[in-house]
Design goal:
Layout lengths: L3 E4 L6 E4 L9 H14 L1 E4 L6 H9 L25 E2 L15 H6 L18 E8 L7 E5 H6 L3 H7 L3 E4 L1 H6 L8 H6 L3 E4 L1 E3 L6 E3 L5 E4 L4 H15 L5 E4 L6 E5 L3 E5 L9 E6 L13
Parallel strand pairs: 2-3
Antiparallel strand pairs: 1-2, 3-13, 4-15, 5-13, 5-15, 6-12, 6-14, 7-8, 7-11, 9-10
């Protein structure tokens, strides 16, 4: 089956035809998907009525899986899915929506901030693949921002300023932005900051991208107030409407995005309704910046 991709976003994002994830991918399909990701950064696959095993097989055909361990406030006894999946639903291990004041739900609300998946890990994620298994009656869309176009649109002085800068990323910082500070000592240790380059160059296309995220709370060598004001300005620039594509979910959709080239955010939905989303993630190639000494 031949893979065909048409652009659907303002400057990126493509809709894919010719892929049935219930069947193993052919080598030419794998190559076409990677080429599509290099070009469009976000790919939408409609009507993929697959189970978890099929999603996992599809993901593994594209690269190495990133394990989802220690990235949420769910205890191991509360996992709803295996660690090959990141559970970004609002459901407990019994498939019931979290109570409105459940700290696991409140922590998850941080996903409504613009971010890049796993930027808080020393080796950040490559692709994320999110499958819609259950949707609320309204809301819950996902928005994506093209960080390549955002970089290209910077003035030359700002391009020179961001080159070579290194940020510190932590889930504690992103959650503090929404007023969530309820961390145990063990969680504070687990979420200690890691360093990421502020500008990344794509290994295939050579295009530069801003590597921003709500997890970024400081710039190495800068005073924190100045760094946070500068990063806020960059995020405002990068998420202007001309750089953003909003995906309105329907059951069976699988959306894949390149975390090296995009940011994304979830949008609100009724708190009492289920939003069952299953995310597999491809591991990145390595650190983007040298880490601080322990």
């Amino acid at each position: 089956m031949t893979v065909a991709i048409r652009q659907i976003g303002p400057c990126f994002a493509g809709e894919v035809a010719g892929v049935d994830m219930r069947r193993p991918l052919e080598p030419d399909q794998v190559a076409a998907i990677h080429a599509g990701m290099d070009k469009y950064a976000v790919l939408v696959f409609h009507d993929q009525n697959i189970d978890d095993a099929q999603q996992l097989a599809f993901t593994r055909s594209l690269g190495e899986i990133e394990q989802a361990i220690g990235t949420s406030l769910r205890a191991a006894s509360e996992y709803r899915l295996p660690t090959t999946f990141a559970d970004v639903s609002n459901l407990d291990q019994h498939d019931k929506p979290f109570a409105r004041d459940d700290r696991r739900r409140l922590f998850g609300i941080g996903n409504r901030l613009w971010h890049s998946d796993s930027s808080f890990k020393i080796v950040p994620a490559k692709y994320s693949l999110l499958h819609a298994v259950g949707l609320p009656s309204k809301g819950g869309n996902t928005e994506f921002a093209d960080m390549r176009a955002a970089y290209d649109a910077l003035d030359e002085d700002t391009k020179r300023e961001v080159e070579g800068l290194v940020c510190e990323h932590s889930q504690m910082f992103s959650r503090q932005q929404i007023g969530f500070t309820d961390f145990t000592d063990q969680e504070r240790q687990r979420f200690r900051p890691v360093r990421q380059s502020l500008v990344r160059t794509h290994p295939v296309t050579g295009r530069k991208s801003l590597y921003l995220s709500s997890h970024a709370g400081s710039i190495v060598g800068w005073p924190i107030p100045e760094a946070r004001a500068f990063l806020r300005d960059l995020v405002e620039h990068a998420t202007q409407r001309q750089f953003v594509h909003a995906h309105q979910w329907r059951l069976g959709d699988l959306v894949m995005w390149d975390n090296r080239q995009t940011m994304h955010r979830a949008r609100p939905f009724p708190a009492e309704e289920a939003r069952d989303m299953r995310r597999t993630t491809l591991a990145g190639d390595g650190p983007t910046a040298a880490q601080a000494a322990a």
